[in-house]
């Protein structure tokens, strides 16, 4: 009885928080963007749930005064760079991407001096300072198209070595990778893939290109999170093993209730993505803090790389 009462109280509290979020969102002419890896309750209050490319495009085109960005630091920075007239708020100020901080602007400049003829492509999972030193950005959804859009034969690719290796397989460009990685995707093992196939023999295995090459070799399809969503809808398969951060499974189940989705590993959790909750979203709307800003000299150069990416057709 006590557990049921506690559960009902929690449901009522969640309901009240959601209603207050929706009220404040209207008052502030705010839009809530949430990455696919966010907690289910955060995804449910968002106006748009998507991957980095989808959210970048939305940030650039939204007719809104405030963006509440439920994700990690580089995503909110990108929105602030593209939306100079909007107030961008990151509900959890300590939500940061470890991979984005695996390279500094000084290290990238050193690499550029070693390869003066190379173009620099940076994954959007990077700081504003890295974007400012790059020729063009990319996401996991358009990395190959971005690489092939360039006239240069050499490409410095930062910071993700695994996405760089995936692109290198599918282009005739010489890819010069930086040794960064996403700790969530990099720790998937071949044993986990083989065990999942044994347990779900009829399932399709979908993995993210941030995974290591040996994991990609064992997959049926390699795609960004938005690509996983499109594939799951179109596929005749009824069961899927999902090789990315486990939060993606919630969105896939919500959009395809008649199909089954299993995370490749239940431990595939980005602790920084999970720092945002409904209470922090509400506080962000109440205070419009913490605001994310980028110095204009950095933003100006980074904007060129981001906009160049947005102009690449996929």
Q: What would you say this structure looks like, in words?
A:
The chain has three domains: 2-96 and 274-287, 3-Layer(aba) Sandwich (Rossmann fold); 99-181 and 295-310, 3-Layer(aba) Sandwich (Rossmann fold), CATH 3.40.50; 189-267, Rossmann fold, CATH 3.40.50.10800. Helix content is 46%, strand content 16%. It is built from 15 helices and twelve strands. It has a four-stranded parallel beta sheet with strand order 2-1-3-4, with helices on both faces. Strands 6-5-7-8 form a four-stranded parallel beta sheet, with helices on both faces. Strands 10-9-11-12 form a four-stranded parallel beta sheet, sandwiched between helices. Helix 1 packs parallel to helix 14 (278-287). The model has no long low-confidence stretch (mean pLDDT 94).
Question: Keywords for this structure?
Answer:
Rossmann fold, 314 residues, 3 domains, four-stranded parallel sheet
Distance between the termini: 55 Å
CATH top level class name of the largest domain: Alpha Beta
Sequence of strands across the biggest β-sheet: 2-1-3-4
What sequence of helices (H) and strands (E) makes up the elements?
Answer: HEHEHEHEHEHEHEHEHHEHEHEHEHH
Helix/strand class:
alpha/beta
Radius of gyration: 20 Å
Q: Architecture of the largest domain, according to CATH?
A: 3-Layer(aba) Sandwich
Helix content: 40-55%
């Amino acid at each position: 009885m006590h557990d049921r009462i506690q559960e009902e109280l929690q449901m009522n509290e969640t309901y009240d928080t959601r209603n207050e979020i929706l009220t404040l969102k209207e008052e502030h002419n705010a839009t809530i963007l949430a990455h696919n890896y966010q907690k289910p309750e955060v995804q449910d209050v968002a106006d748009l749930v998507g991957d980095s490319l989808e959210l970048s495009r939305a940030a650039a085109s939204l007719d809104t005064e405030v963006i509440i960005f439920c994700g990690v630091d580089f995503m909110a920075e990108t929105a602030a760079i593209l939306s100079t007239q909007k107030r961008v708020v990151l509900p959890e100020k300590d939500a940061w991407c470890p991979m984005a901080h695996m390279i500094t602007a000084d290290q990238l400049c050193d690499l550029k001096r070693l390869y003066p003829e190379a173009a620099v492509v940076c994954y959007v999972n990077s700081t504003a300072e890295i974007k400012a030193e790059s020729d063009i950005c990319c996401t996991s959804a358009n990395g190959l198209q971005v690489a092939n859009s360039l006239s240069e034969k050499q490409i410095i690719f930062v910071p993700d070595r695994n996405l760089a290796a995936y692109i290198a397989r599918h282009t005739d460009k010489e890819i010069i990778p930086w040794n960064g990685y996403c700790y969530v995707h990099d720790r998937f093992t071949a044993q986990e893939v083989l065990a999942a196939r044994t347990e779900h023999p009829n399932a399709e295995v979908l993995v993210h290109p941030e995974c290591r090459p040996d994991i990609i070799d064992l997959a049926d399809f390699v795609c960004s999170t938005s690509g996983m969503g499109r594939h799951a809808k179109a596929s005749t398969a009824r069961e899927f093993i999902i090789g990315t951060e486990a939060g993606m499974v919630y969105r896939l189940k919500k959009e395809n209730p008649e199909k089954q989705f299993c995370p490749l590993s239940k431990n595939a959790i980005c602790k920084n993505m999970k720092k945002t909750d409904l209470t922090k979203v509400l506080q962000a709307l109440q205070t419009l803090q913490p605001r994310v800003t980028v110095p204009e000299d950095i933003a100006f150069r980074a904007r060129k790389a981001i906009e160049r990416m947005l102009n690449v057709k996929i």
